[in-house]
Amino acid sequence: MITGATSGIGEALARILVQDQYKLILTGRRLERLQALQQELQGQGAEVHILHFDVRDYEATRVALESLPQEWRAIDVLVNNAGLAVGLNPIQSGVLEDWERMLDTNVKGLLYVTRIVSPWMAERKTGHIVNICSIAGKEVYPNGNVYCASKHAVDALTKGMRQDLLPYGIRVSQICPGAVETEFSEVRFKGDKERAAGVYKGFEPLTGRDVAEAIRFMILAPAHVCINDMVIMPTAQANSGLFYKNL
Ligand code: NDP
Ligand code: 8X3
Questions:
Q1: Domain-by-domain residue ranges, the chain?
Q2: What is the b/e burial string over 65-76, where b = at least 16 CB atoms within 10 angstroms of the residue's CB?
Q3: CATH code, 8-232
Q4: Is 112 a catalytic residue?
Q5: pLDDT by residue (tens digit) across 207-226?
Q6: What is the pLDDT of residues 93-150, one digit of tens each?
Q7: 231 beta partners
């Protein structure tokens, strides 16, 4: 099950896991995109179930997940990918609505989905949860304040989940990417495509597929191996603020 499979990393991951014969549960808010992806992957012979809900809404999340037919509830891998940054303001001029969108999606949404799916895994004494964190969960950069706080929370939650789910044989991993060219910056800059494109100018960023391949490596590790944490960056990026650019 991949949350946020309508674009970027989640969509790329769905495309590559199909080749490993996974049955996929794909979620997101944009129904048309989910339907188009489902149709495309089913055309390749995959079994794909789509669920259309906003992870910020606990009741909608619960109803959607509990609508899964019994056989689809045996979730082997949950990839908590749905997330976003909104705005890039210093703390003193931060926009409350942006803060709430980030905290509600990246922290509470991840918790809501995990709260519903992890008991199903615990009952079966097997499963793997992969949280998509960020280098923003390892470092803090100017004006990144609340987004970085949300991803630091993900870093803490990954560690907490790993401890709590240990007796159930459930693996918990996280991946922390640097700059990945997806719809991320367009969302952060509220539809300003030019400003978003500028983020990736002058160097070769990661693609959704690069990150998806690394997640695949985590998932396909032998059952006794848990990759707790992986930091993945473009070669041209050393930390959140240090790039080697040819502009
Ligand atoms: P995209 O914007 O391309 O994809 C984000 C996905 O999250 C979309 O499928 C979107 O679906 C889904 N999503 C967002 N909000 C909600 C919501 N409230 N309910 C349900 N689904 C939601 O960005 P990325 O692929 O880059 O982002 C994926 C993850 O990777 C995020 O957690 C992000 O923080 C993280 N990340 C990204 C990096 C980057 O540089 N791109 C670097 C490090 C981490 P829909 O809009 O249809 O609901
Ligand atoms: C997304 C990348 O640089 O905004 O997590 O932290 S960055």
A1: 8-232
A2: beebeeeebebe
A3: 3.40.50.720
A4: no
A5: 999 999 999 999 999 999 99
A6: 999 999 999 999 999 999 999 999 999 999 999 999 999 999 999 999 999 999 999 9
A7: 176
